[in-house]
Amino acid sequence: MGLQPLEFSDCYLDSPWFRERIRAHEAELERTNKFIKELIKDGKNLIAATKNLSAAQRKFAHSLRDFKFEFIGDAETDDERCIDASLREFSNFLKNLEEQREIMALSVTETLIKPLEKFRKEQLGAVKEEKKKFDKETEKNYSLIDKHLNLSAKKKDSHLQEADLQVEQNRQHFYELSLEYVCKLQEIQERKKFEFVEPMLSFFQGMFTFYHQGHELAKDFNHYKMELQINIQNTRNRFEGTRSEVEELMNKIRQNPKDHKRASQFTEEGYLYVQEKRPAPFGSSWVKHYCMYRKAAKKFNMIPFEHRSGGKLGDGEVFFLKDCTKRHTDSIDRRFCFDIEAADRPGVSLTMQAFSEEERKQWLEALGGKEALFHSFNRAILPRPEGNAQLDKMGFTILRKCISAVETRGINDQGLYRVVGVSSKVQRLLSMLMDVKTCSELDLENSIDWEVKTITSALKQYLRSLPEPLMTYELHGDFIVPAKSGSPESRVNAIHFLVHKLPEKNKEMLDILVKHLTNVSNHSKQNLMTVANLGVVFGPTLMRPQEETVAAIMDLKFQNIVVEILIENHEKIFRTSPDTTFPEPICLSASPPNAPPRQSKRQGQRTKRPVAVYNLCLELEDGDNPNLPKEDTPTGSQDSLSSPSPTSATVHGPPGPERNHLLSDGGSCGEWTSTTPSQTRPSMVQWLNPQSPTTPSSNPAITPPSPRTSTFPLSPAATIVDKPPESVVSRKARAVYPCEAEHSSELSFEIGAIFEDVQASREPGWLEGTLDGKRGLIPQNYVKLL
């Protein structure tokens, strides 16, 4: 049962039971007071903990933002760039979330803590004051009554009447105070129900708002998250292929390291101990040097290096070789020694010690030393075993027979081409296919003796057994270059051009195979073989470098991209001819470049703005037809690296560091140029250098970047011409494209806007500048420095 009501009429009786009921009300208010006091304390602790959590989250986000993945080689795939940018995306997501949490923490103070403190102070505090008055008047009233009743009846009537009047007045005052106190007690018991609960409701509303904002941020993030999962899966698939190749190469080198020496500019190189002579009392010492010798120039370099001292590199020496003589043990108390005389140091002889007799023989052979035992070493290109597979009529029969069987029996088999057959069965089938008599008798479409995985493995084994990969050693490097850089359209155009440079038989077989792979990818919902998965399987099969090195294996992922582009654009690449008719240098500037990625804080669908890729320029022979193709290139499937990525980073032109180019007059860029040894391209230099006598502004044949994207062929001898990035100091800049800000820290501007005090920003791909008195971020590839 709850508290009993306090009747006003009981104030005049002031019975013991009335007093008990008052004490019950007072005890309940005291309990409420203690509860609110503890709740306020817990609320402040909650705010402090929230701020600590927010600080920890922000620090975590800061750590994510500052870290950057390094990569092996001279370029990254689009997937790898997306993965690199993901840490900054995660950081921005946490930053946005913590901003909402900070708003929630402030609302807790305003909506919960302050109202409760006010209620406790103004309402419960007022009741406490009323209680003090009531207790004081109670004591005074009953003390006066006791004193009055003790008066002697013999006192004068006037004195007694005066005393009676005083007692009556005091009792009336006590009754009034009692009435007010009882009213206050009951009022506060009713008031606390809404005065206390209403702030709690506001507090929970703030929490719901915070979690709703988190839900909205998660919804905005979901699209990016799904694309990133595809990027990660593609990168993992390529990693598995690369790892197996690296392990295979490692095992080959482990078994026979001498036959896997890398091609080098030096005739011989390695560690030698060099005798350093000292004055007589001190004898001599032997110091380890890394030595390099070029036989053509007779130039000998040696650099002291000691592994045990933390790998400290000393000052090197260079001299020209005059003579080399083998030292016998009867003339020196050390093995494996030989002497070197320097042509530019008359009378000076250096004694050197190799690590073994075999290494000394190699040095003596390279240096032309006396008593040298000559033998040859293959240091560059590894011969590959050649099977019986040839690119002939029989080869086309094998290809068509296998493809027909696969498309008839197993086009929907899960893991098609990834699931391998039993090695012995594969070898037996391939032997039968390569025999004219047995091949004609084989009916792979209707035979149950041969599993689909055996047929697919035999097909891949045939392609790998060709003396030269289907896409040739000669064009291998040229195919890799566009896969490492450029926009998706420029990649397709470049590979389109290169495919038509292949020998006719190679191109014909590649056409048949890629058409089949396109059909396989069209059934990816059933067989799970997406374009990216087929790229992983056939990249190393159709393309391989002539020299096996770790650096070459690191390019496997770009071989996969080339195969993806072939599959996604089969009709265009094999059914149309590349356009080789171009006027003066054409810059593929496309529409306004994409700005570097920054997390948008707007609600609703998240806008993706990837970093602009290289603008590609091409210059062909003078007098070419000025007509430009305007065909749109399909971008392909969502999970392919040849498609545009959600957050592409700046492209790296191989070799060299990352390049973020600014647009100079006419649109400076990393260009594809077609050059031959007998012909120079001065006009290309003028195109790249705005200070040349002929600039795009003065040459009407050269036009600045247009909003339309032009396609172009790529020469088989294509090379990258790199323009070093301009050093960004405090300068002025002019907008060459319009831009609408997506964040309060960015600037909106139209074409021709002039920015003051332009400086480099800590965010890659962005500049900081002032426009109309407002300072903010500017996409670097939207402006031209003045």
From TrEMBL:
Biased composition (Basic residues): 599-608
Listed Pfam families: BAR_3, PH, RhoGAP, SH3_9
Sections of the chain in a coiled coil: 225-252
GO biological process, one term: signal transduction
Region (Disordered): 584-608, 621-715
UniProt domain Rho-GAP: residue ranges: 389-574
Keyword Cell membrane set for record: yes
InterPro entries: AH/BAR_dom_sf, BAR_dom, GRAF_fam, PH-like_dom_sf, PH_domain, PH_GRAF, Rho_GTPase_activation_prot, RhoGAP_dom
Protein's name according to its UniProt entry: Rho GTPase-activating protein 10
Keywords: Cell membrane, Coiled coil, Cytoplasm, Endosome, GTPase activation, Membrane, SH3 domain
CDD domains named in the record: BAR-PH_GRAF_family, BAR_GRAF2, RhoGAP_Graf
Keyword match Nucleotide-binding: no
Residue ranges of every copy of the PH domain listed in the record: 265-372
Main function: GTPase-activating protein that catalyzes the conversion of active GTP-bound Rho GTPases to their inactive GDP-bound form, thus suppressing various Rho GTPase-mediated cellular processes. Also converts Cdc42 to an inactive GDP-bound state. Essential for PTKB2 regulation of cytoskeletal organization via Rho family GTPases. Inhibits PAK2 proteolytic fragment PAK-2p34 kinase activity and changes its localization from the nucleus to the perinuclear region. Stabilizes PAK-2p34 thereby increasing stimulation of cell death.
Gene Ontology CC annotations of this record: cytosol; endosome membrane; perinuclear region of cytoplasm; plasma membrane
Composition-biased stretches (Polar residues): 671-688
Record PROSITE patterns: PH_DOMAIN, RHOGAP, SH3
Highest taxon of the lineage: Eukaryota
GO molecular function, one term: GTPase activator activity
Domain SH3: 728-786
Localization (cell): Cell membrane; Cytoplasm, Perinuclear region; Endosome membrane
Biased composition (Low complexity): 634-650, 689-700
The gene coding this protein: ARHGAP10
